[in-house]
Design a protein that fits this description.
By secondary structure, the chain is mostly helical. The chain has 14 helices and no strands. The longest helix is centred in the middle third of the chain and has 37 residues. It is elongated and about 75 Å long.
C-alpha cells in the first residue's frame, strides 16, 4: 500500500472515485450528474435485472420460509431415508429421512445472515481504516497500512479455521454458532475493503471542493464526513456486493469442513457436508443445496459486476 505502487484495488477505486462529485452547475443547466447517469444505465442492464430478481427471491425465502414450505425441516423419519424426489417431497429425503426441500428453504436464512452481517462488519472495519489512512496520511497511513498488510498475510480460510476450531459446545465438540462465524470472517476479511476505501479517499481529498472547504475553515470531521466520505463510498459498496457472494461460499466451506455452523442448525454448507459421504446412495441431498448455493453466489457476483460497470467511468 505504498504511495508509489498502486494495488489493483486502489487503481479501481481511483477510477471510480468522484463519480458522485457535487457539480455546482448541475442545478443551473439541469443536466444529470454522473451518479444519475450511472443509475439510469444500471437499470437498463439485463445482468442487473436478472441478478436483482434472483436476490430478491432469495431474500424473500430467507425472511419468510413458511411461505414456501409447511414441513418442519427437523422432522425426520428414517423410513424415508434417501428416498428420491416425489410429489410429497420435491427434493427427496436425506439419509436421516429429513425433507431436503424444507431444509434447503430454511438453510437459506443462516447462509444469508452470515453473508450480509459479515459484509456489513467488514465494510465498517475496512471503511474506517481506509478513511483514516487515506485522509490523514503520513504516520497514520503508514501504521494502518502495516496492520492491513499483516492481516493480508493470513490466508482467510486458514485463519478462520484456526479461530473457529476453538469454539466448543457444552459437550466439548467443535460447534461455532452463526455469530461466531460472522465475527471470525469479519476479522479476517476486511482488508480488501480498506485498500479500496483508502485509494478512493486519497483521490477525492485532492478535489477542489475539499480544498475550498478546508480554506473556509471547515473542521476535519466535517470535511471527512460531509465531503470526502460520501464521494468515495461508491467503490466500497461495489466491492462489498461482490464480496457478499464470496462470504456465503466461505461459510459453506467452513461448515462443510465441520468448523463452521453445525447441526441442529441448518445451512447449505451443513447440508452439503452431510450429503457428500453418501453420494453413492443418491445425489439429490447434495445437488439441491449445492445448486442454491451456486445460484446465490453467482447472483451477488453478477450484481456487483453490473454496479461496477455502471459506476466506473472507464467502462461506460
Amino acid at each position: 500500500m505504498s504511495n508509489t505502487t498502486k494495488s489493483p484495488e486502489e487503481a479501481f477505486a481511483e477510477g471510480m472515485a468522484g463519480t458522485v462529485t457535487p457539480d455546482v452547475s448541475a442545478k443551473q443547466d439541469k443536466t444529470r450528474s454522473l451518479a444519475q447517469d450511472a443509475l439510469r444505465d444500471l437499470i437498463r442492464r439485463p445482468m442487473f435485472i436478472v441478478s436483482g430478481v434472483l436476490i430478491l427471491a432469495i431474500l424473500t425465502i430467507a425472511t419468510f420460509p413458511t411461505l414456501f414450505t409447511s414441513v418442519d425441516p427437523l422432522a425426520c423419519d428414517l423410513k424415508h431415508s434417501m428416498e428420491g424426489p416425489s410429489g410429497s417431497a420435491w427434493f427427496g429425503y436425506n439419509f436421516q429421512g429429513c425433507d431436503v426441500y424444507s431444509q434447503t428453504i430454511y438453510g437459506t436464512r443462516n447462509s444469508i445472515i452470515v453473508g450480509v452481517l459479515t459484509t456489513i462488519f467488514s465494510l465498517i472495519i475496512g471503511g474506517l481504516v481506509g478513511v483514516l489512512g487515506g485522509f490523514f496520511g503520513k504516520w497514520t497511513d503508514a501504521l494502518l497500512s502495516f496492520v492491513t498488510n499483516v492481516f493480508f498475510g493470513l490466508p482467510l480460510l486458514l485463519a478462520a479455521i484456526v479461530i473457529l476450531n476453538n469454539f466448543r459446545d457444552e459437550k466439548g465438540m467443535r460447534n461455532a454458532g452463526v455469530m461466531a462465524v460472522v465475527l471470525t470472517l469479519s476479522v479476517v476479511g476486511w482488508m480488501s475493503m480498506a485498500r479500496v476505501m483508502r485509494g478512493a479517499v486519497m483521490q477525492v481529498k485532492q478535489a477542489d471542493y475539499v480544498a475550498a472547504a478546508r480554506s473556509l475553515g471547515a473542521s476535519t470531521s466535517r470535511m471527512m464526513f460531509r465531503h470526502v466520505l460520501p464521494n468515495s463510498i461508491t467503490p466500497l459498496i461495489v466491492v462489498a456486493t461482490i464480496s457478499l457472494g464470496a462470504v456465503i461460499g466461505a461459510e459453506a466451506t467452513l461448515s462443510f469442513l465441520g468448523i463452521g455452523i453445525r447441526p441442529p442448525a441448518i445451512s447449505w454448507g451443513v447440508m452439503i457436508s452431510e450429503a457428500q459421504g453418501r453420494i453413492s446412495q443418491g445425489l439429490h441431498p447434495l445437488l439441491f443445496p449445492s445448486g442454491m448455493l451456486t445460484i446465490t453466489v453467482l447472483a451477488f457476483i453478477m450484481l456487483g459486476d453490473a454496479v461496477r460497470d455502471a459506476f466506473d467511468p472507464k467502462l461506460r
